[in-house]
Amino acid sequence: MDTEPANSVIGLDVGLEFFYTNQKGNKIDQPKFLRKGEKKLNKFQVLTSQ
After folding, report:
1. For position 13, what pLDDT does the model report?
2. Which of 3, 14, 31, 46 is the most exposed place for a label (fewest CB within 10 A)?
3. pLDDT score at 1
4. Mind listing the pLDDT tens digit for each residue in 8-42?
5. How many CA atoms lie within 13 A of 27 on its CB side?
6. CA–CA separation, 41 and 16 (whole Å)
7. How far apart are the C-alpha atoms of 16 and 44, rounded to whole Å?
């Protein structure tokens, strides 16, 4: 399969409020891995402390 470069440029802005924003203004939210993990950890800490 022969492929040629697209010769196009895209712009991405990585930030704190949103994970990234592309050149068209589409905003992608931050992944919530930490918050989900904190909830599970809190649950297990409560169970083990009893």
Report:
1. 81
2. 3
3. 63
4. 777 878 887 888 888 888 888 888 778 778 888 99
5. 6
6. 24
7. 29
